[in-house]
Specification:
It holds the Pfam family DUF568. Residues 1-24 form the signal peptide. The chain is α+β, with helices and mostly antiparallel strands and 213 residues long. Helices cover 17% and strands 38% of the residues. The protein has three helices and twelve strands. The longest helix has 28 residues, at 2-29. The protein is globular, with a radius of gyration of 18 Å. It starts with a helix and ends in a 5-residue tail after the last helix. Residues 8-26 and 197-213 have low confidence and may be disordered.
């Protein structure tokens, strides 16, 4: 009897997982983009209300990516790839979108060398065949970029984050569970994914010193 109950619960859990996955795919597949952009694959990310869209090009191991996340006009969002062995913010090449007081949206491209990064612009550890762009509409940022997948591998450790701005400067992101779990191993070919903690808390001192220009 115990074996039957275990099998029944396993079947129910599997069914719910597939249903949740199908719902997430349906939610992200209804998104619209400007300038006639379209993407072949998408996934609703597990935290921060974000979604990722991409088209993988096997001929040159690149991916056209759109990252979308809800945020207030006085906040920032980021997406990137960790080129190291572990999923986390430290060791990641990231694209950070925010806007100035006039509503002009810009993208910082930076490598997070540690949990206390310098946030120096143009220091990515991956190739970007088509430079990033970003827009803010409907209470959400969308970052567009084409990346060369490190090591020609379709499986990458992806990270994302969101936080506030303070007087034009990127302020520290919250340390809630959602902000600390914003990492996912993603297969850009099959769409397979798994999540993991990011240990993504960044130095308050360094974030205070960064100004978006």
């Amino acid at each position: 009897m115990a074996g039957r109950n275990h099998s029944a619960w396993l079947l129910i859990a599997t069914t719910l997982l597939f249903a949740a996955t199908a719902t997430a795919q349906q939610n992200c597949s209804s998104a619209k983009f400007t300038s006639g952009r379209s993407f072949q694959s998408c996934t609703t990310l597990p935290v921060l209300g974000a979604s990722l869209y991409w088209t993988y090009h096997a001929s040159n191991a690149t991916a056209d990516v759109a990252f979308r996340a809800p945020q207030s006009a006085d906040g920032w969002v980021a997406w990137g790839i960790n080129t190291g062995r572990f999923a986390g913010m430290a060791g990641s090449s990231v694209f950070v979108a925010s806007q100035d007081g006039n509503g002009a949206v810009s993208v910082l491209t930076t490598y997070l060398e540690s949990t206390a990064p310098s946030l120096t612009n143009n220091t990515l550890k991956l190739a970007v065949p088509a430079g990033p762009a970003a827009e803010y509409a409907g209470g959400a940022y969308t970052i567009y970029v084409t990346v060369a997948l490190p090591g020609n591998s379709t499986v990458q450790n992806t990270v994302w984050q969101a936080g506030p701005l303070s007087k034009g400067q990127i302020a520290p992101h919250p340390t809630s569970a959602a902000n600390l779990l914003s990492a996912q191993k993603l297969d850009f070919l099959s769409g397979g994914r798994s999540t993991g903690a990011t240990k993504s808390k960044l130095s308050r001192r360094n974030l205070r010193g960064f100004h978006q220009g």
